[in-house]
Amino acid sequence: MPVVEGSVVIAAPQGALFALSQDYALRRAWDPFTRDLKFLGGALAAGLGVHVWVRAWTGLTMEVEYVSFHPPHVVAMKMVRGPFFFERFAGTWLFRPHPTSGTEVTFRYNFETRWHFFRPLLDRVVELVFRRDVRARLRGLKRAAEKTDILSRCYNNPSSVPPPFEYKPGREVPVVGGPG
Q: What is the pTM of this model?
């Protein structure tokens, strides 16, 4: 299964960056990928098992489910419904304190396209688009965190993590594309 990944060091606290990445009220202020987002099923915030509908800059839409949610370290989603050419799709955000300062943020896509015969060509095209998207999203997050006041607007507390979510032991899922 192809993996597209990028990382950047951002001069901001890990918890604040995690919170910003999951603050859907502010997402469009920094994320060039996202055109529209909606929580589904009555959810009000990100959390394990929560479903979200997303419209990308391409116009394509997808419903994803949070399969890992561990503030301020990792969040991962998998596609529940989406573009017909994906057999499987998942995305992961990782946040690690950087040894020198700030936070290393990694964003990763895993995907599998349909139609085995066309995969070599289709995967390459999707990889090129996703590589551009990953770089743009990381640049947008870095620029917003380091050059604007967006962290102070994120849940009104720059060192916070998102509001409480319902945690159900035993529902943890390994980080998509990560160890374990």
A: 0.81
